[in-house]
Amino acid sequence: NLFLLITAIGIGLFLQKMRDTEESTGLRDIKNGMTAGVPYAVIIGIFIYFYYAKIDPEYNQHKLAEQEYVIDKQLNAPGGLEKIKKENPDFEVLSKQEIKEQAMDSAKGALNPTSTMTLTLLGLIVMSAMNSIFITIIYRRIVFRRPKVPNSTDSPSS
User: Fold this and answer.
1) Is residue 46 within 8 Å of 27, Cβ to Cβ?
2) CB of 51 within 8 A of CB of 76?
3) Distance from the CA of 2 to the CA of which of 27, 44, 82, 154 falls in 20 to 30 A?
4) pLDDT tens-digit map of 112-158
5) For 2, what's the count of Cα atoms within 13 Å in the CB-facing half-sphere?
Protein backbone atom coordinates (compact mmCIF):
# COMPACT_ATOMS: atom_id res chain seq x y z
CA ASN A 1 0.00 0.00 0.00
CA LEU A 2 2.71 2.46 0.92
CA PHE A 3 4.67 1.81 -2.26
CA LEU A 4 1.55 2.34 -4.37
CA LEU A 5 0.67 5.46 -2.38
CA ILE A 6 4.14 6.93 -2.92
CA THR A 7 3.96 6.01 -6.60
CA ALA A 8 0.55 7.66 -7.01
CA ILE A 9 1.77 10.84 -5.30
CA GLY A 10 5.01 10.91 -7.25
CA ILE A 11 3.38 10.38 -10.64
CA GLY A 12 0.50 12.76 -9.90
CA LEU A 13 2.83 15.51 -8.73
CA PHE A 14 5.22 14.94 -11.64
CA LEU A 15 2.41 15.19 -14.20
CA GLN A 16 1.08 18.32 -12.52
CA LYS A 17 4.53 19.93 -12.51
CA MET A 18 4.95 19.12 -16.21
CA ARG A 19 1.54 20.68 -17.01
CA ASP A 20 2.10 23.87 -15.01
CA THR A 21 3.54 26.69 -17.04
CA GLU A 22 4.01 29.04 -14.11
CA GLU A 23 6.18 28.61 -11.05
CA SER A 24 4.30 26.97 -8.19
CA THR A 25 4.80 27.30 -4.47
CA GLY A 26 5.77 24.47 -2.15
CA LEU A 27 2.34 24.45 -0.53
CA ARG A 28 0.68 24.17 -3.91
CA ASP A 29 2.92 21.22 -4.77
CA ILE A 30 2.03 19.53 -1.46
CA LYS A 31 -1.66 20.09 -2.23
CA ASN A 32 -1.21 18.61 -5.68
CA GLY A 33 0.51 15.58 -4.15
CA MET A 34 -2.35 15.16 -1.69
CA THR A 35 -4.78 15.43 -4.61
CA ALA A 36 -3.18 12.32 -6.05
CA GLY A 37 -2.81 10.47 -2.73
CA VAL A 38 -6.19 10.97 -1.07
CA PRO A 39 -8.28 9.31 -3.82
CA TYR A 40 -5.98 6.28 -3.56
CA ALA A 41 -6.53 6.21 0.22
CA VAL A 42 -10.32 6.43 -0.21
CA ILE A 43 -10.36 3.62 -2.78
CA ILE A 44 -8.25 1.37 -0.53
CA GLY A 45 -10.40 2.23 2.52
CA ILE A 46 -13.61 1.33 0.69
CA PHE A 47 -12.05 -1.87 -0.61
CA ILE A 48 -10.96 -2.87 2.91
CA TYR A 49 -14.46 -2.25 4.25
CA PHE A 50 -16.10 -4.41 1.59
CA TYR A 51 -13.41 -7.07 1.89
CA TYR A 52 -13.88 -7.55 5.63
CA ALA A 53 -17.66 -6.99 5.60
CA LYS A 54 -18.74 -8.92 2.48
CA ILE A 55 -15.92 -10.88 0.84
CA ASP A 56 -14.17 -12.50 3.81
CA PRO A 57 -16.15 -11.93 7.04
CA GLU A 58 -14.81 -15.27 8.35
CA TYR A 59 -11.43 -13.59 8.88
CA ASN A 60 -12.88 -11.40 11.63
CA GLN A 61 -14.62 -14.40 13.17
CA HIS A 62 -11.31 -16.28 13.16
CA LYS A 63 -9.51 -13.36 14.82
CA LEU A 64 -12.28 -13.08 17.43
CA ALA A 65 -11.94 -16.80 18.18
CA GLU A 66 -8.19 -16.36 18.60
CA GLN A 67 -8.74 -13.39 20.91
CA GLU A 68 -11.26 -15.37 22.97
CA TYR A 69 -8.73 -18.20 23.32
CA VAL A 70 -6.05 -15.76 24.53
CA ILE A 71 -8.44 -14.15 27.02
CA ASP A 72 -9.53 -17.55 28.35
CA LYS A 73 -5.91 -18.62 28.68
CA GLN A 74 -5.02 -15.47 30.63
CA LEU A 75 -8.06 -15.71 32.91
CA ASN A 76 -7.61 -19.44 33.62
CA ALA A 77 -3.87 -19.28 34.24
CA PRO A 78 -2.85 -19.69 37.88
CA GLY A 79 -3.04 -16.22 39.38
CA GLY A 80 -4.15 -14.75 36.06
CA LEU A 81 -7.49 -13.41 37.28
CA GLU A 82 -5.86 -11.73 40.28
CA LYS A 83 -3.15 -10.24 38.07
CA ILE A 84 -5.73 -8.81 35.64
CA LYS A 85 -7.73 -7.33 38.53
CA LYS A 86 -4.56 -5.71 39.94
CA GLU A 87 -3.59 -4.24 36.55
CA ASN A 88 -7.03 -2.75 35.93
CA PRO A 89 -8.88 -1.34 38.95
CA ASP A 90 -12.19 -1.33 37.01
CA PHE A 91 -12.12 -5.14 36.97
CA GLU A 92 -11.78 -5.54 40.77
CA VAL A 93 -15.51 -6.06 41.37
CA LEU A 94 -16.22 -7.98 38.16
CA SER A 95 -16.49 -11.73 37.80
CA LYS A 96 -14.39 -13.76 35.39
CA GLN A 97 -17.27 -13.92 32.90
CA GLU A 98 -17.87 -10.15 33.05
CA ILE A 99 -14.18 -9.45 32.46
CA LYS A 100 -14.23 -11.80 29.48
CA GLU A 101 -17.34 -10.10 28.06
CA GLN A 102 -15.76 -6.65 28.33
CA ALA A 103 -12.54 -7.85 26.72
CA MET A 104 -14.46 -9.50 23.88
CA ASP A 105 -16.56 -6.35 23.33
CA SER A 106 -13.34 -4.40 22.98
CA ALA A 107 -11.97 -6.95 20.49
CA LYS A 108 -15.23 -6.87 18.48
CA GLY A 109 -14.99 -3.10 18.23
CA ALA A 110 -11.39 -3.26 17.05
CA LEU A 111 -12.11 -5.95 14.45
CA ASN A 112 -15.24 -4.26 13.10
CA PRO A 113 -14.96 -3.58 9.31
CA THR A 114 -15.97 0.05 9.84
CA SER A 115 -13.25 0.70 12.42
CA THR A 116 -10.69 -1.11 10.25
CA MET A 117 -11.66 1.09 7.30
CA THR A 118 -11.52 4.24 9.44
CA LEU A 119 -8.07 3.45 10.81
CA THR A 120 -6.83 2.57 7.32
CA LEU A 121 -8.16 5.85 5.91
CA LEU A 122 -6.62 7.82 8.74
CA GLY A 123 -3.25 6.13 8.34
CA LEU A 124 -3.16 6.45 4.56
CA ILE A 125 -4.20 10.12 4.62
CA VAL A 126 -1.50 10.92 7.19
CA MET A 127 1.03 8.98 5.10
CA SER A 128 -0.23 10.81 2.01
CA ALA A 129 0.42 14.17 3.66
CA MET A 130 3.89 13.20 4.87
CA ASN A 131 4.89 11.64 1.55
CA SER A 132 3.56 14.67 -0.34
CA ILE A 133 5.85 16.86 1.74
CA PHE A 134 8.87 14.61 1.17
CA ILE A 135 8.24 14.16 -2.55
CA THR A 136 7.70 17.91 -2.96
CA ILE A 137 11.05 18.56 -1.29
CA ILE A 138 12.77 16.03 -3.53
CA TYR A 139 11.17 17.40 -6.68
CA ARG A 140 11.89 21.03 -5.81
CA ARG A 141 15.49 20.47 -4.66
CA ILE A 142 16.65 17.78 -7.10
CA VAL A 143 14.38 17.05 -10.07
CA PHE A 144 12.93 20.46 -10.97
CA ARG A 145 15.81 22.59 -9.75
CA ARG A 146 15.98 25.91 -11.52
CA PRO A 147 19.37 26.96 -12.79
CA LYS A 148 20.72 30.03 -11.12
CA VAL A 149 20.29 33.04 -13.36
CA PRO A 150 23.07 35.57 -12.98
CA ASN A 151 21.80 38.91 -11.82
CA SER A 152 23.21 42.18 -13.13
CA THR A 153 24.46 42.96 -9.62
CA ASP A 154 26.27 39.59 -9.44
CA SER A 155 28.58 40.29 -12.42
CA PRO A 156 32.19 41.03 -11.61
CA SER A 157 33.22 44.63 -12.11
CA SER A 158 36.11 45.42 -14.41
Assistant:
1) no
2) no
3) 27
4) 899 999 999 999 999 999 999 998 888 888 777 666 666 656 555 54
5) 5
